Amino acid sequence: MKLSPSILAADLANISKAIRLCEQAKADFIHFDVMDGHFVPNLTFGAPVIRAVRALTKIPFDVHLMVENPEDYVDDLAKIGCHIVSFHIETTPHAPRLAAQIQEAGMQASVALNPGTSLVAIEEVLPVVENVLVMGVNPGFYGQDFIPHMAEKIEKLSEYRDEREMVFTIEVDGGVSVNNAPTFEEIGVDIVVAGKAFFTVDDPYAAARLLRGNASKKTGGRRNQEES
Q: What CATH number is given to the structural domain containing 28?
Protein backbone atom coordinates (compact mmCIF):
# COMPACT_ATOMS: atom_id res chain seq x y z
CA MET A 1 0.00 0.00 0.00
CA LYS A 2 0.97 3.63 -0.34
CA LEU A 3 1.17 6.04 2.58
CA SER A 4 -0.38 9.50 2.69
CA PRO A 5 0.38 11.19 6.05
CA SER A 6 -2.31 13.66 7.07
CA ILE A 7 -0.63 16.98 7.73
CA LEU A 8 -3.49 18.05 10.01
CA ALA A 9 -2.09 15.74 12.69
CA ALA A 10 1.39 17.26 12.50
CA ASP A 11 2.75 20.17 14.52
CA LEU A 12 1.51 22.97 12.28
CA ALA A 13 3.72 25.42 14.14
CA ASN A 14 6.71 23.55 12.70
CA ILE A 15 5.46 22.51 9.29
CA SER A 16 8.96 22.31 7.80
CA LYS A 17 9.90 19.62 10.31
CA ALA A 18 6.74 17.67 9.48
CA ILE A 19 7.53 17.78 5.78
CA ARG A 20 11.09 16.60 6.36
CA LEU A 21 9.69 13.69 8.36
CA CYS A 22 7.42 12.76 5.45
CA GLU A 23 10.37 12.87 3.07
CA GLN A 24 12.61 10.80 5.34
CA ALA A 25 9.85 8.22 5.77
CA LYS A 26 9.47 8.16 1.96
CA ALA A 27 5.78 9.05 2.10
CA ASP A 28 4.04 8.54 -1.22
CA PHE A 29 1.72 11.53 -0.75
CA ILE A 30 0.98 14.29 1.74
CA HIS A 31 -2.68 14.48 2.67
CA PHE A 32 -4.47 17.80 3.19
CA ASP A 33 -7.92 17.95 4.80
CA VAL A 34 -9.63 21.11 3.58
CA MET A 35 -12.68 21.85 5.75
CA ASP A 36 -14.94 24.86 5.27
CA GLY A 37 -16.98 24.88 8.48
CA HIS A 38 -20.15 24.13 6.48
CA PHE A 39 -20.00 20.63 5.01
CA VAL A 40 -18.26 19.66 8.24
CA PRO A 41 -18.32 21.64 11.50
CA ASN A 42 -14.61 22.38 11.63
CA LEU A 43 -12.52 24.87 9.67
CA THR A 44 -8.94 24.05 8.65
CA PHE A 45 -6.93 25.58 5.82
CA GLY A 46 -7.23 26.30 2.13
CA ALA A 47 -5.15 26.95 -0.95
CA PRO A 48 -2.74 29.52 0.62
CA VAL A 49 -1.44 27.02 3.19
CA ILE A 50 -1.19 24.22 0.62
CA ARG A 51 0.69 26.58 -1.71
CA ALA A 52 3.17 27.43 1.05
CA VAL A 53 3.84 23.74 1.70
CA ARG A 54 4.24 23.06 -2.01
CA ALA A 55 7.40 25.17 -1.95
CA LEU A 56 8.91 22.84 0.67
CA THR A 57 8.68 19.47 -1.05
CA LYS A 58 8.14 17.56 -4.27
CA ILE A 59 6.03 14.83 -2.64
CA PRO A 60 2.67 14.58 -4.49
CA PHE A 61 -0.24 16.26 -2.73
CA ASP A 62 -3.45 14.38 -1.93
CA VAL A 63 -6.20 16.92 -1.17
CA HIS A 64 -9.46 15.94 0.49
CA LEU A 65 -12.16 18.59 0.02
CA MET A 66 -14.65 18.42 2.88
CA VAL A 67 -16.42 21.48 1.58
CA GLU A 68 -19.55 22.72 -0.06
CA ASN A 69 -19.05 23.79 -3.70
CA PRO A 70 -15.84 21.78 -4.27
CA GLU A 71 -15.73 22.96 -7.88
CA ASP A 72 -14.68 26.40 -6.62
CA TYR A 73 -11.37 24.98 -5.34
CA VAL A 74 -10.20 23.13 -8.45
CA ASP A 75 -8.40 25.90 -10.31
CA ASP A 76 -6.39 27.03 -7.29
CA LEU A 77 -5.34 23.46 -6.47
CA ALA A 78 -4.28 22.89 -10.07
CA LYS A 79 -2.13 26.03 -10.04
CA ILE A 80 -0.44 24.80 -6.87
CA GLY A 81 0.37 21.47 -8.51
CA CYS A 82 -1.73 19.01 -6.52
CA HIS A 83 -1.93 15.39 -7.62
CA ILE A 84 -5.17 13.87 -6.28
CA VAL A 85 -8.30 15.87 -5.45
CA SER A 86 -11.13 14.13 -3.57
CA PHE A 87 -14.64 15.60 -3.52
CA HIS A 88 -17.56 14.22 -1.55
CA ILE A 89 -20.37 12.61 -3.49
CA GLU A 90 -22.74 14.17 -0.94
CA THR A 91 -21.82 17.69 -2.11
CA THR A 92 -22.65 17.58 -5.81
CA PRO A 93 -25.39 16.30 -8.13
CA HIS A 94 -22.94 16.53 -11.03
CA ALA A 95 -20.13 14.19 -9.97
CA PRO A 96 -19.00 13.13 -13.48
CA ARG A 97 -18.78 16.77 -14.55
CA LEU A 98 -16.74 17.68 -11.48
CA ALA A 99 -14.43 14.70 -12.06
CA ALA A 100 -13.89 15.91 -15.62
CA GLN A 101 -13.13 19.43 -14.37
CA ILE A 102 -10.45 18.05 -12.04
CA GLN A 103 -8.93 15.89 -14.77
CA GLU A 104 -8.95 18.67 -17.34
CA ALA A 105 -7.01 20.76 -14.80
CA GLY A 106 -4.30 18.08 -14.83
CA MET A 107 -5.10 16.26 -11.58
CA GLN A 108 -6.54 12.87 -10.65
CA ALA A 109 -10.20 12.89 -9.70
CA SER A 110 -11.23 11.06 -6.53
CA VAL A 111 -14.72 10.62 -5.13
CA ALA A 112 -15.15 10.41 -1.35
CA LEU A 113 -18.08 9.10 0.64
CA ASN A 114 -19.10 9.29 4.27
CA PRO A 115 -19.71 6.21 6.45
CA GLY A 116 -23.46 6.66 6.14
CA THR A 117 -23.44 6.90 2.34
CA SER A 118 -24.08 3.75 0.33
CA LEU A 119 -21.70 2.57 -2.38
CA VAL A 120 -24.66 2.80 -4.73
CA ALA A 121 -24.30 6.59 -4.56
CA ILE A 122 -20.94 6.49 -6.38
CA GLU A 123 -21.66 3.69 -8.84
CA GLU A 124 -22.24 5.98 -11.80
CA VAL A 125 -19.01 7.93 -11.25
CA LEU A 126 -16.69 4.95 -10.73
CA PRO A 127 -15.86 4.54 -14.45
CA VAL A 128 -14.55 8.11 -14.67
CA VAL A 129 -12.48 8.58 -11.49
CA GLU A 130 -8.96 7.46 -10.66
CA ASN A 131 -9.51 7.00 -6.92
CA VAL A 132 -12.20 6.36 -4.32
CA LEU A 133 -11.70 7.73 -0.80
CA VAL A 134 -13.66 5.75 1.77
CA MET A 135 -14.11 7.52 5.09
CA GLY A 136 -13.51 5.20 8.04
CA VAL A 137 -14.88 7.82 10.44
CA ASN A 138 -17.45 10.59 10.31
CA PRO A 139 -15.58 13.51 8.70
CA GLY A 140 -14.61 16.70 10.40
CA PHE A 141 -13.09 15.54 13.68
CA TYR A 142 -9.51 14.43 14.25
CA GLY A 143 -8.54 11.34 16.23
CA GLN A 144 -11.61 9.09 15.87
CA ASP A 145 -11.43 5.29 15.85
CA PHE A 146 -12.11 3.41 12.63
CA ILE A 147 -15.74 2.29 12.33
CA PRO A 148 -15.41 -1.52 12.07
CA HIS A 149 -18.19 -2.18 9.55
CA MET A 150 -16.55 0.21 7.07
CA ALA A 151 -14.19 -2.68 6.30
CA GLU A 152 -17.17 -4.48 4.74
CA LYS A 153 -17.86 -1.47 2.54
CA ILE A 154 -14.24 -1.38 1.39
CA GLU A 155 -14.27 -5.10 0.66
CA LYS A 156 -17.45 -4.77 -1.42
CA LEU A 157 -15.92 -1.89 -3.35
CA SER A 158 -12.78 -3.92 -4.02
CA GLU A 159 -14.84 -6.89 -5.22
CA TYR A 160 -16.90 -4.59 -7.46
CA ARG A 161 -13.68 -3.24 -8.98
CA ASP A 162 -12.28 -6.69 -9.64
CA GLU A 163 -15.49 -8.12 -11.07
CA ARG A 164 -15.80 -5.26 -13.57
CA GLU A 165 -12.05 -4.98 -14.24
CA MET A 166 -12.07 -1.32 -13.27
CA VAL A 167 -8.92 0.68 -12.57
CA PHE A 168 -9.56 3.12 -9.72
CA THR A 169 -7.48 2.91 -6.56
CA ILE A 170 -9.05 2.66 -3.12
CA GLU A 171 -7.98 4.99 -0.32
CA VAL A 172 -9.08 4.83 3.31
CA ASP A 173 -9.06 7.84 5.61
CA GLY A 174 -9.88 7.93 9.31
CA GLY A 175 -8.86 5.70 12.17
CA VAL A 176 -5.99 4.07 10.28
CA SER A 177 -3.43 2.41 12.55
CA VAL A 178 -0.62 -0.10 12.40
CA ASN A 179 -3.07 -2.60 13.90
CA ASN A 180 -5.72 -2.41 11.17
CA ALA A 181 -3.42 -1.73 8.22
CA PRO A 182 -2.94 -5.47 7.49
CA THR A 183 -6.72 -5.85 7.20
CA PHE A 184 -6.89 -2.95 4.77
CA GLU A 185 -4.22 -4.55 2.64
CA GLU A 186 -6.08 -7.87 2.60
CA ILE A 187 -9.35 -6.31 1.42
CA GLY A 188 -7.88 -4.28 -1.43
CA VAL A 189 -6.89 -0.85 -0.12
CA ASP A 190 -4.18 0.89 -2.15
CA ILE A 191 -3.57 4.08 -0.12
CA VAL A 192 -3.84 4.64 3.63
CA VAL A 193 -4.16 8.10 5.15
CA ALA A 194 -2.46 8.19 8.55
CA GLY A 195 -2.55 11.12 10.97
CA LYS A 196 -1.80 10.36 14.59
CA ALA A 197 -0.60 6.85 13.60
CA PHE A 198 2.32 8.52 11.84
CA PHE A 199 2.95 11.96 13.32
CA THR A 200 2.36 11.28 17.02
CA VAL A 201 4.20 7.96 17.56
CA ASP A 202 7.69 7.47 19.00
CA ASP A 203 9.04 5.86 15.81
CA PRO A 204 7.28 7.22 12.71
CA TYR A 205 9.69 5.39 10.39
CA ALA A 206 8.73 2.02 11.82
CA ALA A 207 5.09 3.08 11.69
CA ALA A 208 5.45 3.99 8.02
CA ARG A 209 6.80 0.53 7.24
CA LEU A 210 3.96 -1.17 9.07
CA LEU A 211 1.31 1.07 7.55
CA ARG A 212 2.52 0.28 4.06
CA GLY A 213 2.45 -3.46 4.60
CA ASN A 214 3.58 -5.31 1.51
CA ALA A 215 4.30 -2.31 -0.71
CA SER A 216 5.01 -4.56 -3.68
CA LYS A 217 1.45 -5.88 -3.70
CA LYS A 218 -0.44 -5.41 -6.96
CA THR A 219 -3.15 -2.85 -6.41
CA GLY A 220 -5.58 -0.63 -8.21
CA GLY A 221 -7.34 -3.19 -10.38
CA ARG A 222 -6.47 -4.19 -13.90
CA ARG A 223 -4.37 -1.14 -14.80
CA ASN A 224 -1.71 -1.75 -12.16
CA GLN A 225 -1.67 -5.45 -12.86
CA GLU A 226 -0.98 -4.79 -16.53
CA GLU A 227 1.76 -2.27 -15.71
CA SER A 228 3.56 -4.54 -13.23
A: 3.20.20.70
